Amino acid sequence: MIPHIEEQIHQFHKELEEKRCEALEAKYNKNKATYGKKVKRNSIPKPWTRPCENALCQDIDLLIMVDQYDFDLTNDCFQEYCLARGVLHVAGEVGSRRWEYFLDHTKTKKEYLADPFHQYAQEINGKSYRYTANEIELGWKIILLGRAQLQDCWELFSSNAPN
Prior knowledge:
Helix content: 40-55%
């Protein structure tokens, strides 16, 4: 079982704080006078918790920190729940190439970048536009945000599902 998104977001912030402290300590270790000096780690409170039991996270800056998923997009009841919550649209059309990256959340950025489908815009009047590197990168971030939104929805769906 993976950690809830609240915990994943909290862990991300704790790791940022640890990296900050390690960088300062590395800087201190380059100077004889400060060699071995330790940096006090700040206490990191949870940056987000559900304000009520069925609230979805709406903050994309926090959702992008979620990187573990176990949602099941093959579950018809889950799809209906996501549709009712206004989240299912992030996965695109059922069976599309975009859908595949949500159906199989183990698909990697490397696979996404290598897939020619994600390098070109939809053909209009016989012409297709090739995305820039920035646009392709943005497309991958949108996949990650969509996965995080679906994971958030999955947590609520699972907590409300009859056992």
